[in-house]
Amino acid sequence: MVPVDKAALVDIFxxxxxxxxxxxxxxxxxxxxxPSIVAETVLSRRGDWPFPQLRAVVSAPTxxxxxxxxxxxxxxxxxxxxxxxxxxxPAIKQQPSRKAAEAALAALRGLLSTFPFVGxxxxxxxxxxxxxAVVRPCLPTAPLFGVSAPTPGTGKSKLVDIAAILGTGQAAxxxxxxxxxxxxxxxxxxxxxxxxxxxxxxNIEYPLRSEFLCQVLTQGVVAVRVLGESRNLKxxxxxxxxxxxxxxxxxxxxxxxxxxxxxxxxVERPExxxxxxxxxxxxxxxxxxxxxxxxxxxxxxxxxxxxRVVPPLGSFEGWSDRVRSALVWLGEVDPLANSGKVRDDDxxxxxxxxxxxxxxxxxxxxxxxxAKMIEMDRDQSPDFRRHEALSDALAEFIERGSLHKQRFGLxxxxxxxxxxxxxxxxxxxxDRAKVALWAIETI
Length: 443
Known about the structure:
Radius of gyration: 28 Å
CATH superfamily of the largest domain: P-loop containing nucleotide triphosphate hydrolases
Shape: globular
Distance between the termini: 52 Å
CATH topology of the largest domain: Rossmann fold
Number of strands: 18
CATH class of the largest domain: Alpha Beta
Number of helices: 15
Strand content: 15-25%
CATH architecture of the largest domain: 3-Layer(aba) Sandwich
Structural class: alpha/beta
Number of domains: 3
Largest sheet: 5 strands, parallel
Strand order of the largest sheet: 9-10-13-8-14
């Protein structure tokens, strides 16, 4: 996706319209190029353009939001999707049988058979990634797919590329994932502006956390500031997002927006393995067959009114009711079976659990009381320290041996009510000085 300037619009209008200029002296017209003022006027009407809204560009048949197959090339007015492809796509069966769906799913399993999935849930999650890439334009939202392995060279990027090839016809657009939220927003915003349909945050070496990425995954449209300009663009978020990394971890609100895929070759140097086929080449050569198989799986689930998984994944109900439920309907393990591991590996959750386990129980306390407990140990020898575990747990809030009360108070207010390991922080009124009394409550 690129902006059209005046010169480009003049060229387009000249090709589309037969422009003529009257010559009084000769009493006749002669052909001319489109006048610049026409292109300038059209461009100035930003916000009032009568053109159809383009939501997505696809290079393969896909599904509409109502579950019907979009297979006619060109612009589909009902969805805003442009189907443009040089391949000759066969007609997709509108009423496939369950047996046909099982055979189609077997073909997709065969494509992924060389990857060292840790368990059946990981294979199911990978199949969900493939199906999502094919029908992402019809889904209002879709989770992020995280591909993790203990060592490099296990096949994380290759697995992601297979899904991207089936969905878009080419390998995934790869981004680095900077730690700074502002930089990550710039990187992701730039590829959304470019209209990339499949985006990968590659080789992440730290627990991934991003408020902007959370918005992109759960909102249909996000506002992105144009680099070098003081204006925002509202961009559709209909892209498939993936993340890869060794021992990949997620933090904060992003943990509930992730479908985790674990790979483990169980060898010291997985990059030295040899395979009889190149799966990415197979995906390119058999793309028509495999995309047809993916659509067959989903169409069969729709026409046979397959049972939906309950409860659906919050914020991703459309994806859960279509992609996730279709796989479970055909006998696959729930693709979200690894969600518990994603939450347990959240470093923020681990930090909060440690603090909950070391704070006083049995009676309410104030932030000042916790500060005094830490100060009591400050000048004691190790053998006489009574609150060493508490000091270790609150180390990030301690400066020069004293508790930073304001920061610790902000932490308590943010975590209040959140249940972790059967415990939570609650407010139990105020003392005579109107200072908040906190307590650890067992659920």
